[in-house]
Amino acid sequence: MGHPDARPTTRTASGLAIALLSGFSFGLAGPFAASLIAVGWSPPAVALARLAGAAVLLAVPLALLLARGWRPRAGHGRAVVVYGLVPLAGAQVCYFSAVGHLSVGVALLIEYTAPVLLLAWTWARTAVRPRPLTLAGAALAVAGLVLVLDVARGAQVDVVGVLWGLGAAVCLAAYFRLSADAGGAEGLPALVLTAGGAVVGSVVVALLGLVGLLPLTATTAPIDLGGRGAPWWVGVLLVAALSTALAYLTRIAAVGRLGSRLASFVGLSEVLFAVLGAWWLVAQEPTATQVAGGVLVVGAVALIRRAEPPERRSTATAP
What we know:
The protein has helices at 6-27, 29-37, 43-57, 59-67, 76-99, 104-111, 114-126, 132-149, 159-182, 190-210, 232-258, 260-266, 269-282, 288-307, 310-314, and strands spanning 223-225, 228-230. By secondary structure, it is mainly α. It is globular, with a radius of gyration of 19 Å.
């Protein structure tokens, strides 16, 4: 018989690996989207293509799941609608609106305060003070993000933009919480949650575009990826398949293994991968300041990983 702690340790290790894969997938969304925006796509149009494309790609595996006998239960429809409205459509609409008032770096920084908001919400809800090591990790993560995003260069501050950015942060925090709840008593598969949420999110963004609240502009001009030309649909396929369908599925799986708190901080790796992806795909070389920030973020994740005991992480998805 194996050591009693072997299973939680293995579960945590696999959760960290899956979370990093998710961060890598999410991180490439920025460079893929930038290649489309550079040739005339509006950011909301990229968001719509991202969500609608993911919904189409996930239709086949979803049909196979239904063919194998899975059937929705009471509460599943509500969970899918909330997931599509808040973490999918809500986060993207708020973020793109923030970018309209703030520099990209500042908007990202505000959105990625989500793990700290989640930590504060859990503290307020349970009245249990986080461990000092967890608080230190949160502070270190924020400091690292400031350096990674390099907001000191050309930063612009606008109250309306800050409010939109905070809205994106709340939606992102809700994403981690809803992902943790997905594996609870309702037993809602990640595939159903992601596919259904993508459909709901697509409808919401499309409706906002039709009524004129969001600009939906797209072109068929070829894009540039890593110094090579490619058809526009390659960019759409990559952002939908790799940076949406795979990214959301793996992040839900990671949250189920790590719990929403630890997974949210590991999710900060998305920013690091975004910087590396921009270097690789659009020739935006990271600065020494960004590298130093990356080291701080990795250190923050290590601190929080050490602060969270195995029994709390392994029961994070309990109802």
